[in-house]
Design a protein that fits this description.
73% of the residues lie in helices and 0% in strands. By secondary structure, it is mainly α.
Length: 129
């Protein structure tokens, strides 16, 4: 059944579909960590959530060579909704700011990478409204 944006779930057994399923699984893992953070307010759980988010967005970036390709990558209605919830949750809890507070001497550019990935996804979701 399509969502509000006309996206359908697909279930082919191609290499592209297997990669998609991996990204979807990583997104579910990141959402799980976000839910755990909401319950416990544990900064380590927030860090895990951000790192998993970065892996998913990075993997999407590997498959998206043109902005139009993002529609294809997020064509699955469930994946689209999960990524949107993840982005909204990271913003709602301001996890990047929390990361910066807890890791003042972290790897150079780590927080900036999270911020860039979050911004790219926000722009994409805003373009879909």
């Amino acid at each position: 059944m399509p969502d509000n944006f006309g996206r359908e779930s697909f279930s082919q057994n191609t290499p592209e579909d297997r990669n998609h399923q991996k990204m979807k699984g990583l997104c579910k893992d990141a959402l799980h960590e976000l839910n755990e953070y909401e319950k416990k307010r544990d900064p380590q759980v927030a860090d895990i959530c951000l790192h998993r988010f970065a892996v998913v967005v990075g993997a999407l970036g590997d498959h998206v060579k043109h902005p139009r390709d993002m529609d294809k990558a997020l064509a699955d209605a469930d994946f689209f909704a999960e990524m949107k919830r993840l982005v909204d949750g990271i913003k709602r809890f301001d996890l990047i700011k929390l990361y910066e507070q807890n890791h003042p001497t972290s790897i150079a550019g780590q927080a900036e990478m999270f911020r860039r990935y979050l911004m790219s996804m926000e722009i994409y979701f805003a373009s879909q409204s």
